[in-house]
From TrEMBL:
Belongs to the pirin family. Residues 202-304 form the Pirin C-terminal domain. Residues 62-140 form the Pirin N-terminal domain. It holds the Pfam family Pirin_C. InterPro entries: Pirin, Pirin_C_dom, Pirin_N_dom, RmlC-like_jellyroll, RmlC_Cupin_sf. The lineage of its organism: Bacteria, Pseudomonadati, Bacteroidota, Flavobacteriia, Flavobacteriales. It comes from the Bacteria. This is Pirin family protein.
Length: 334
């Protein structure tokens, strides 16, 4: 049998992905204790380049936040964001009037469609110790027929996301089906909503010193495995170090031997959309003319405006996990 590995590549920022995905970003920040106002206790007067604060040599970054870490309001059109927060919390607010606080394993699925503004802030709620944040954001494209659907906001709470326990592995099934275990339904207009597109997003954790077999899928898909934490892994005699992506043949079972440390992976898989992609910042369309149209519409309409008092809006410090939907429905988790 031929090798299952098609390509390997180092993980940069953002991670490279294959159609139907656009890219993925991984944030791992060891934030310090909070200052009581959900910002960092240490002073920021140390030369940080706020707004371009992506230096991986730093233990933590403010990104575009000025007082609270995160990304103040910004627009999107033409694709979806899937935000996985394994550690820490994210405060969401958007131009639909939707809002939420989610984390510790929760996933937010947002369809930008014809246009939405949102903010993603990372409140530092613990004032007695550190506030670690581990977050993945995956951009999933929309086909031409769905570029202008109504925006949609959905929460996949960690209590509802199935986790498959194997002898030496744990597989969190965020999208798709793993050995008969089906993930929660994605957003309704998503490319992932049609099972014939075989979209899968799995967070896989495998014990050190063991072996794991990734089950085969359907030919004609793209399948990429992102090895973001661990020591080393082996495909037969071929060694792969952490912080590498591996493009795999989806039609083969893949046996992976794990090194001394526990290995952590994200798997992204799906049927390609196979349409032209035009990208500019937060807009993803099919042509450059559509990008110009998106920019002009945002300038004129702000995609509905901003109903919150601040661009970096966060929720009350003592608020638990919750979701407020555009129709006014409120879900409180704790």
């Amino acid at each position: 049998m031929s090798t299952p590995i098609i390509q390997t590549f180092p993980l940069s920022t953002p991670w490279q992905t294959k159609d139907p995905f656009l890219f993925s970003v991984y944030h791992l920040d060891h934030f310090p204790k909070g200052n009581g106002e959900m910002g960092p206790d240490p002073s920021l007067l140390n030369g940080r380049n706020l707004g371009n604060d992506f230096d991986p040599r730093e233990k933590w970054r403010m990104y575009h936040g000025q007082t609270i870490p995160g990304f103040p309001y910004h627009p999107h059109r033409g694709f979806e964001t899937i935000t996985i927060v394994n550690k820490g919390f994210c405060d969401h607010s958007d131009s639909l009037g939707a809002a939420g606080r989610f984390g510790e394993g929760d996933v937010q699925w947002m369809t930008a469609g014809r246009g939405v503004q949102h903010s993603e802030m990372f409140p530092l709620l613990n004032e007695d110790g550190d506030n670690p944040l581990e977050l993945f954001q995956i951009w999933l494209n929309l086909p031409r027929s769905s570029k202008f659907v109504e925006p949609h906001f959905k929460m996949l709470w960690h209590e509802d996301i199935p986790v498959v326990q194997e002898e030496h592995a744990q597989i969190k099934v965020i999208a798709g089906t793993y050995k008969g275990t089906v993930a929660p339904a994605p957003a309704p207009d998503s490319w992932a909503a049609d099972p014939d597109n075989h979209v899968a997003i799995w967070n896989i954790h495998v014990d050190g010193g063991s072996e794991y077999t990734l089950p085969e899928a359907t030919s004609g898909l793209t399948r990429s495995l992102y090895f973001y934490e661990g020591s080393e892994i082996y495909f037969g005699e071929r060694k792969i170090n952490p912080n590498f992506g591996i493009v795999l043949d989806p039609a083969q079972d893949v046996s992976i031997k794990i090194g001394d440390k526990k290995a952590h992976f994200i798997l992204l898989q799906g049927k390609p959309i196979e349409e032209p992609v035009a990208k500019y910042g937060p807009f993803v369309m099919n042509t450059d003319e559509e990008i110009q149209q998106a920019m002009e519409e945002y300038r004129l309409t702000q995609f509905g405006g901003w109903p919150w008092p601040y661009a970096d809006h966060v929720h009350d410090k003592d608020r638990g996990r919750f979701a407020l939907y555009p129709d006014g429905r409120l879900v409180e988790k704790n």
